[in-house]
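Reviewer 2 asked us to include a model.

Predict the structure of this chain.
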Amino acid sequence: MRVVAVPAILLFSLAVVSFAQNAPEWGATSLGQDRSMSPFDRTSSTQTGSISGTVVAVDGRPQFNVSVQLRDLGTGHILASVYTNGAGGFSFDMVPYGRYELVATEQMASLRQDIALSSGFEVVSLRLNASDPNAASSHNAMVSLAELKVPQRARDAYQKAEQAIVKHKSEDVAKYVQKALDIYPAYAPALTLRGALSLDKDDLAAAVDDFDKAIHADSSYAMAHVAMASALNRLNKFDDALRAAERALSLSPNSWQPYFEMAKSYVAKADYQRALQQLAHAQGQMSQDYAPLHLLRANVLLGLKSFNDAATELKLFLRIAPKDPMRQRHKTHLER
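Predicted model (C-alpha cells):
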C-alpha cells in the first residue's frame, strides 16, 4: 500500500492508538503517540465527590439489577458501572469534579442523563420506561441480552477494574479484569479491556486476539470494534481498520472514536481530504476540546502542505496538553 511521506520534520508514524486510545508514541520522529484509546488517559480533578441515585419505573417502582454506567461526557468512555440494588439504588464514589453522563439500561430500555459534579455529592432519580420496546435501539438490546448471561461475580470483578482505572491503578485493573475472565471467559468488555492493556504494552498479537474474542462473544459491543480498528491501524492494515471502524460506527453512531480511527487510516493512505472530513465528524461528537485531534490534524495539514494551518493546530495541541511527555519535541517541531 502506498504511503506518501509528510515532511521529515514531522514524520507521522502509522502506529497509533492503544485501547482505549492512549498509545505510547507515534514513532521516533513523530509528533508524539496518540493514547486516546487508553483507559488511563484522563484528566482528573483534585477534588472528588459521589454520585448516587435511584432507578425507578414510570409508576415509581424501584428497578432492581439495572445496569448504570458513569461515562466521560466528552469521550463516551465508561469510567465505572454498577447494578442497582433491591431498592433501585446505585452509587459512584471518589468521582473527580466534572461533567458526566449516566446511562441506565435494562433489556430494551435505555436512559441517558447528563450530570455535573461540583460539590461533595449529587443525587439523581432516573425514570426508566422498561415496558417501551422503542425506548432503546436494537443494538442496546443486544448488548443487554449478552450481558444478562454474565455472572454477577464477573460483573463485580469488572466493576472493580473500572474503579481502578479511575484511580490510575494499572496493576489492579489487570488483576480484576483477569478475575472477571476467569469467571466468564466470554465477557466482551473484559476481553476488550484486557486487549487494551496489551496494546499499551505493544503486544499487538495478544491485543488482536482478545478483540477478536470480544467481537465473537458480543458482536454488538461497539468498543471492541473500535479497539480492533486501533490495533489494525498499528499493524498497517488500514483497509481492515476502516471496516472495523465503520462497523463500530453503525453500532454507536454518536461516538467520536470510530471517526478518529478512520481519520488515522486515511492519513496512512495519504487520503488527506477524507482524513479531514473524519476529524470534523469526530470533533462534532465531542463536547470538549481533545488534544490528540489537533495533533492528528496537524499531520494531515502537513500532508497537504498547509504549513501555517499545521502550526496553528500544533499550537492548540501544546496549549491543551501542557503536560504531554513529548511536549519538548513538539515545541522543537513547531519552531522548525
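The chain has twelve helices and seven strands. Confidence is low (pLDDT under 50) at residues 1-36, 38-44, 132-144. We have added this to the supplementary material.
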